Amino acid sequence: MKFVNPLHSVPPIFYSDLRHLVIATAEKFGDKPLYEYLEGGERKTVSYADFAAMVSSLATALDAHGLAGGRIVMIGETHPAYLATYIATVAMNGVIIPMDKELAPEQIEAFIRHAEADAVVYTAGLNGRFDGAEYDFLRLRVPVTPAADYERSETVISFADMLSDGNDAAAAGNTAYDDTVPEMEKCSILLFTSGTTGTSKGVMLSHGNIIAALNSATHTMPYDENCTFVSVLPVHHTYEMLCGQLGVVAIGGSMLINDSIKHVLKNFADYKPNTLILVPLFVETLHKRIFDEIRRRGMEKKVKFAMALAEKLLAVGIDLRKKLFSQITAAFGGNLTSIVCGGAPISPRILRDLYLFGVTVFEGYGITECSPLVAVNSSRVLRPRSVGAPVFGCEVKIDREDETKETGEILVKGPNVMLGYYKNPEATAEVFTEDGFFRTGDIGYLDDDNFIYITGRKKNVIILSNGKNVFPEELEEYLASVPFIKETVVLGRKKENGEVAITAIVVPDTQHPEVEGKTPSEVYDAVKVAVTAINKRIPTFKHITDIEIRNEEFPKNTSKKIKRYLVK
Predict the structure, then answer these.
(1) What is the rounded distance in angstroms from the CA atom of residue 201 to the CA atom of residue 193?
(2) Do residues 93 and 117 touch, judged by C-beta distance below 8 A?
(3) Using CA atoms, how far apart are residues 363 and 385, in angstroms rounded to an integer?
């Protein structure tokens, strides 16, 4: 099947497998920088040719050490070795197990045991973590940047020594990397959700799942070898791995690995990326910082006038955004033109503001079980409030419990959909329909052009005493448009009389001029006025009836999503 996206003058390659990805891009881009990163206070560069050699050496070393086809945990900070380990493991028909470095030590141990891992590869921040006797079951520990007292042993070999071993084995005639035939349909990637082994689900993805999602991404989005990125998201998440790592390699882009969350803006300014892969919280933070600086300089009226002017000029085909807002976009290096954003809804107001500054945000939709890409807006068509149309090869339909309703559960089918849940056939059976569609648990609808609109999560729905359903995400989107509301969670509180009260728990932005310096009572009153205005715009049964002010931000996971289950 051939698909040519009109966004590309030269159609991107369809990659057959991850080894093909590495070899083809090394041949095409050679000495071009793939990665730049900071290590030991020194800025380092890895070219496409360097990276291909790294993957080949590591894959050969895995075979030489009897780990080809083994189960390998990768944990730590984003590093070229992380992606090399991911690709080499899968290319040798093993199972890569990316793990969240923020998990508690006992959780990490439990997951590693549950996955029956053979080895663990870890970056500097995890040095010492796997030295204890509780990890004696591992055949090998591989520190990427070993501690100063590192000594090679039968069970501890540094990443550099593994590469050296691979080179020696290849020189001695080992051709396993070239000879291995990829098994595309077996489990190749195992991803655990947070929690304990009893409550988490291990998502099993195949080599074929990841390649299908990668090809869909590169053929859907308007990106090519001229794109430059700064990597800021946790690398163990499939979204960052597919779009922010494998995707950059696939298009021939270049990437700076952000070394610290506090250095993000400095790295943007220094590296001058033209594209970013982010989640809503990052976009919202960037937006907030822009307007905080505008207010600090007393330029709010001037900027709003310029935005209105830019909007009118765009309507007649004149684009002066770069000239009008160069001071603002300079904070991101001056070259940023687009952001891919997924993981949660984002305020249309923020999308509009950034667009008028010259930065287009492409909202997308994905779920780990779908490798993760399902849909995305592209530069051909942008639909406000939509997460885009299904990507190439992905079929989406709506399962309506009541045919009179427009919304229902979003179902997905395609080569990107997971094999199932690890050691959990019951849970696997529950999420697949008889005709093979995956039940996402998200509620939404499709428009006439097959664009997806998400209205809420099935498990978050508030069921009122009259039987009506309210999706908190819809109300949270309204609340997010209030400038002085920083974060919010809407839930149903059951009262003594049995009635369910729709309650908004609000974290105010106390530095915003509208509430700065005000007493708690005055802040509450300001929120109440905003809520009253929102209630006037929505049906009565959806009205927010109770308000709670929270002084601390909500707990979040490493992808910056609020942990709703912890909000009581």
Answers:
(1) 6
(2) no
(3) 9
The closest of 102, 220, 77, 85 to 163, measured between CA atoms, is 85
- pTM (2 d.p.): 0.86
Which one, of 69, 52, 64, 56, lies nearest residue 172 by Cα? 64
Look up the domain containing 81 and give its range. Answer: 18-256
Name beta bridge partners: 256. Answer: 36, 230
Distance CA 286, CA 568 (A): 29
Of 256, 273, 304, the domain-final residue: 256
Classify residue 373 by burial, with Cβ atoms within 10 Å: 0-12, 13-18, 19+: buried
Domain count along the chain: 2
- List the beta bridge partners of residue 398: 410
In a domain, residue 190? The reply is yes
pLDDT at 197: 52
Taking alpha carbons only, the member of 274, 279, 293 closest to residue 341 is: 279
> Which pLDDT value is given to residue 5?
37
Strand order in the sheet with 202-206: 140-143, 119-122, 71-75, 95-99, 187-192, 202-206, 420-421
Question: C-alpha 534: how far from its chain's center?
Answer: 30
Neighbours of 436 (CB within 10 A): 11
CATH number for position 539: 3.30.300.30
Q: Considering the domain boundaries, does residue 498 fall inside one?
A: yes
Domain final position from 201, 234, 256: 256
Q: Given a cut of 90, is residue 102 above it in pLDDT?
A: no
